[in-house]
Design brief:
The complex is a heterotrimer of chains A (292), B (361) and C (359).
Chain A: H1 7-34, E1 36-38, E2 44-46, H2 50-57, H3 59-89, H4 96-105, H5 112-122, H6 129-136, H7 147-175, H8 179-187, H9 192-220, H10 224-229, H11 241-251, H12 255-286
Antiparallel strand pairs in A: 1-2
Chain B: E1 4-11, E2 25-32, E3 37-41, H1 48-56, E4 63-68, E5 71-72, H2 78-81, E6 83-86, H3 98-108, H4 113-126, H5 142-154, E7 161-165, H6 173-190, E8 193-198, H7 201-207, E9 210-215, E10 218-223, H8 225-230, H9 235-240, E11 247-250, E12 252-260, E13 263-271, E14 278-282, E15 287-291, E16 299-300, E17 302-308, E18 312-319, E19 322-329, E20 338-342, E21 348-351, E22 354-355
Parallel strand pairs in B: 3-8, 3-9, 6-7, 7-8
Antiparallel strand pairs in B: 1-2, 1-4, 4-5, 9-10, 11-14, 12-13, 14-21, 15-20, 16-20, 17-18, 18-19, 21-22
Helix pairs in contact in B: 3-4, 3-5
Chain C: E1 2-11, E2 14-24, E3 30-33, H1 40-48, E4 55-60, E5 63-64, E6 75-78, H2 90-100, H3 105-118, H4 134-147, E7 152-156, H5 164-179, E8 184-189, H6 192-198, E9 201-206, E10 209-215, H7 216-221, H8 226-231, E11 238-245, E12 248-251, E13 254-257, E14 269-274, E15 279-280, E16 289-300, E17 304-311, E18 314-321, E19 331-336, E20 342-344, E21 350-352
Parallel strand pairs in C: 3-8, 3-9, 6-7, 7-8
Antiparallel strand pairs in C: 1-2, 1-4, 4-5, 9-10, 11-12, 11-14, 12-13, 14-20, 15-19, 16-17, 16-19, 17-18, 20-21
Helix pairs in contact in C: 2-3, 2-4, 3-4
Classes of the chains: A mainly alpha (292), B alpha+beta (361), C alpha+beta (359).
Amino acid sequence: MKRWNNKAWLLVVPMLALVAFSAVIPLMTVVNYSVQDSFGNNEFFWVGTEWFQEVLRSERFHNALLRNLAFSGIVLVIEIPLGIAVALCMPRRGPMVSVCLVLMALPLLIPWNVVGTIWQIFGRADIGLLGYSLAGAGLDYNYAQNPLDAWFTIILMDVWHWTSLVVLLCYSGLVAVPDAYYQAARIDGASRWAVFLNIQLPRLKRVLLIAILLRFMDSFMIYTEPFVLTGGGPGNSTTFLSIDLVQMAIGQFDLGPAAAMSLVYFLIILLLSWIFYTIMTSTDDAAGSPGS
Amino acid sequence: MAKIILDGVAHSYMKNPLLERDYALKSIQHEWHDGGAYALLGPSGCGKTTLLNVISGLVRPSRGRVIFGRQDVTLLPPEKRNIAQIFQFPVVYETMTVAENLAFPLRNQNIPKPERDRRVGDVLAMLDLEAAAGKRARNLGADTKQKISLGRGLVRTDANAILFDEPLTVIDPALKWQLRAQLKKVHREFSHTMIYVTHDQTEALTFADKVVVMREGEVLQIGTPEELFDSPSHTFVGRFIGSPGMNILPCEVHNQTAIVGAHRIPLDQSYCPAAGGLELGIRPEYVDLTEETESDNGLPVTVCSVENLGRYKIVEVKLEQHKLKVMLQEGRPVPRSPHMSFHPERVKIYQDSVLLSSARG
Amino acid sequence: MLELIQVNKVVDGEATLEDVNLTLSNNAINILLGPTLSGKTTLMRVMAGLDRPSSGDILFNGESVIGVPVQKRNVAMVYQQFINYPSLTVFENIASPLRVLKVDSRSIIKKVQRAAAMLQITDLLDRTPEQLSGGQQQRVALARALAKRAKLVLLDEPLANLDYKLREELRSDLPKLFSEQGAILVYATTEPIEALLLAGKTAVMHEGRVRQFGTTIEVFNNPRDITAARVFSDPPLNIGTVTKMGALLNLGEYSLPLGSQANDLTDTEYQVGIRPHNISLNRDGENSVEILGTVTVSEITGSESFIHFHFADCHWVALVHGIHIFGQGEEIQLYLNPETFYFFYRDGKLAQAPEDSIR
């Protein structure tokens, strides 16, 4: 009776090979670098956890990590509510739906370095619309010299670039709510806020989980846009972990510490994502077992 | 609570309706009495749900007025009309408990907590939901969820009417029986006006005091279940009500006799209708099938098929080229050479599908 | 012939099918009757090969088909929801399984035309599903199953989402359509009356088990146990507890004469099942016994009335001829005929059914 079909394994092998080559092997290389020192000439010495200790103790690393956490925190606090709000304002049916969707998807389609370049020009006080208007309004705005202005610009840029993703995810969750729910709520005399709290938000839970995870991971790994816009400056004020890492690895060619740092970086992202995920799914369970 | 008047209500889902058939509802004139139990019955697309939504305010009619008591509510949104509506698929607020669900409409009306708790308690008891009161609504069965939807309507003692849009569609047959009986009980105790939309004749007839049969945006007949069954005013009503529906045969009529093909069928009153478009209607319940020897003036028929439903059999017979269905009560065998006769007082005559009402001459 | 031998299906540690043994043939429609979640759909998925049973074997014409992928089984399935390809015309929808089978286009046209004609949708062939009503859409789905000429056709509550009157029409056509092809036809439904109308053979399902399988009217008249009797009763079966003492039955505070069917039963406690239409408002037959019931609700269906009443601490329903309206709480006389009682042992097994002449 048992006729197991082993051919299935053949289908999985190419995928496994691909994952091995694209993920596992490079990661192992990094691990390899992180525990050795090299003075060129392809000579390597075993140093154990020395690089890790150095990275974890370095103030430079701590500062960059704090910047990253602050950046991701600010970005999430702005983008998630804003994304939900925009999604709520979008029409659920009619000809405007596709117009809105295309408009929303537009920022997502622009290559990241182009986004940086756009904002670099946009923010310039001499020729950029944003910089020029702010200067015209009497504000002393210069993202290249003032750290606060640099942060303001990078956050604004990220919000402009990525809120759409949250909007699209939330919108997909909202259109899945059957009409009867809204009709019942109108008849029950529910306020707009009550409708949001009792019908829409519970239905958005799953997509919001995805949105928060994606936005957290992405913002925590941000590199291209600030690199193009500020290059990590002024001073070190926008030097995020990723920028620091590249400087260390390519600029100073400190391969060992860079490898150790990238592993720590990787583990932090993994850990924080996991924490987010457990917190959000556990509140889901408290609301009742995952039935229907 | 108040009576509900529909004054020339018509509705089209098109922006510029021109033709008669562009209207989903064609000029409805009707008065719903306070405290009545009504059913809107008809095939899908007959406009019954549109009519319900016009009453609840979810649809604003293209023409005509909706009046609750003395107030014209045509332009009022649903939340201002004080009605409750129960939909085909149960709607519950998933993050709330059963009791919170029931309290929700009252909280929206800012009714103080003691009063709220009292009313919620009453409704929980009425619907046998007390045991589930503290449970989260989301993990309950479809029938319980539908009870919660109903309960949210019932807690509002001031509701003008409770509207039902095919509420038992997703409920198992055995539970349908319980819910239906519970609805009737609720109607009697709270005496809200209730309007119940369905395509299922059993649901309509068992629930309502008055059934409104609709087709293609028009009301064909309004009557008690008994009236609809015994004297359908239109052949469509005859066929739609009853299972199987009324048998309809083309015929000619001479005074107190109907003539189908070569056969003469006695009637209990005489007609002298204008010629043409005449049909005879007889319900399967009122046809007797007997052995040739038993009756003298039966019509000879041949049996096409027999369906045994345990309690009775449905026999399909052929009279010349016409097929008829006959109900044979339990225990009665299918005759070997069957003859068919109609109860004369149950035979109805239709002209152009409309019942010829009284004997003239 | 499709044989299921000791089929079990366990999902997340819970048995959704338990020890299912069935032999389905193509000379009559096979009905799976049971409430929601009784395992009908799971069983059909296992039959189709969409799911693999946890244990047991499935033989098609004597050969095991476990592990044979669904694409190779020549199975057609129609669901409660109207499932058609929205972008394809009705013609292409019906033709789609034939295209997969690489049938040449001339015979596709012929087969589609034939199937469309049988379901009376020939003049809809150029439309797309969204232009059709629910009934028409389900006809298209059925035509697709028909055109495929599958050896096993599974219909999962195909009429549940249709209007009452449309159901009557399609229901009478269905068995004829598929029997002409010699396919094994399986039909799942929650409604006892639908099973009776379709006739054929019925498997009564409850909590993942097949409680009884046999000719539909046989199963209806002779339920093996109280569960099968309950599932196969609409309106619901009335159940009371009686004690037999010699020639008497004690039911609540009443003492009833024993029906002739129960003469051979030993004196002990039984559960009796009484079909609602066997309770009447008039004395019928010399054996019938008057009882007093308290009305909760009375419902009218046109020529008959359902009377819900309280009797012997239970909720009962009587189905009586004519229009009868009673107020809530009204005490009325009803008549029971002990000859019509089904007797069940305390463990639920049928002890004695009424004699055939009675029903």
